[in-house]
Amino acid sequence: MPALGVRRLPRLSQSHRIVRELRSLNWDRRTFVRFGIVAAVCYVAWVTEQNFGRWYDFFDMKIYHGAVVWWSGGGELYEYIAPDTTLGFTYPPFAALLMLPMAALTPSAAGLFNLLFGLTALGFVLTALLVPVADRCGWPRWMTVAVALPLFAAIEPVRETLGFGQVNLLLFALIMADMVALRRGWRWAGVGIGIATAIKLTPALFIVYFLVSRQWRAALTAVGATLAAWAAAYVIVPHESTAYFGSVLWQTERVGAADMTPNQSLAGLLSRLYDTTTAPSLLWIAFTLVLLAVGLTRAAAAHAEGDELIAFTLVGLTANVVSPISWTHHLVWVVPAVIALGDQALRRRAAGRGLAARGRSTPGLREPIWFPALVGTRHGGAAVALYLLFLISPIWPYEHQLPGVSHYADGLFGMLAENSLAIALIALVAALPSRPGAEPAFGNLTTARIPLARPAAAAPRRDTPTPVAANADH
């Protein structure tokens, strides 16, 4: 029996509803125009990727594939070094067990499967985030998601994840599935974050967020899922588990130098500013603690205001900033940041139109004609600027590597461009606005909505009898 005050969940998921919406389309001229728009957006995204992207060739997937092939042949998992590189396998043993079946595939086939799974994961996340916006604005759901998918697939973190054969989109979907589960009141909320943490350690910050925001059940579920996954891996491969947690975990040099241009974390920013291969330890620790406090505090405040999307986004961005190494393909949390800023602009624009309409209908009160057009411009401009920054990714023309070339070789402008993504992440942690009372994932709220402020009732006239009892809703 559903709990008191909780709405019964719909039988069809939003993805099923989108499929049903596609099947019920009337194939008229408007429908063909919409499909033409989707096709045009896909082409523009492909051209953009060709111009601003790099040559990837499933580079990271080849390392994973080579490691599991080496391991399945009797070699030591963490002693594998990919040919012509100094890189080896850096994930926990649980991740290695999940990747082990791809040893039966070729590296290219494994990369193509990962590309398909990554696009599916991105489609799930975009469906969760955009369906409530589409419903509120009266846009076709399928077209909204279909247009957004190639647009976001073209930006730096997503195209690098897909091109390198990385797992970031899969972890992203696991974490966002927990956001959906939390807003629907499902008891298993936290399992996705727990599994993501067992695969890669950085999602553990979401467990800290659960503790800070006092979501005890989700925190315990996430911790339990992580420990269960690691325990299962220890039972199956005890030698590799001991090696990873005993030594490999602490060998930070295995992943590369902190000052490398693709590392857009705080540590990378400080390393390049000081023109050294490592960040100054005390300064990095001090700024890390400050940004952790800011990010987690703002995330807890957004949760209290009912905006779980902004809360999750802030935690993900904070994890990118404070991690010693955050390659550009790790920065997938700009996707919900762009969507949230765009949604904030739409909300403010709708509110501005409502105020203008009220002003026109109120005798003696006239709003300026330009007022509705300007409301929301600030947030909309920020969303467009953030999207274009990660689409163009201006760090690559100014890529430098010590000790060969100083990071100041191109002057102040080159230094700003080389650190532009890291600066944007820090700005988002500090200033990404929340949306009090915003729709949860999939638009189905399981707890009471935060009521919008209502105008105060006018004082009763002296000749008007006072009501005996007020309505409970007021």
UniProtKB/TrEMBL annotation:
Localization annotation: Cell membrane
Main location: membrane
TM annotation in the entry: 31-48, 80-100, 112-133, 139-155, 162-182, 188-212, 219-237, 279-297, 309-325, 369-392, 412-432
Signal peptide segment: none
UniProt-recorded Gene Ontology molecular function terms: hexosyltransferase activity
InterPro entries per record: GT87 (IPR018584)
Pfam families in the cross-refs: GT87
Annotated segments matching region Disordered: 455-474
GO cellular-component term (any): plasma membrane
Family stated for the protein in its record: Belongs to the glycosyltransferase 87 family.
This protein's name: Membrane protein
Lineage: Bacteria, Bacillati, Actinomycetota, Actinomycetes, Micromonosporales
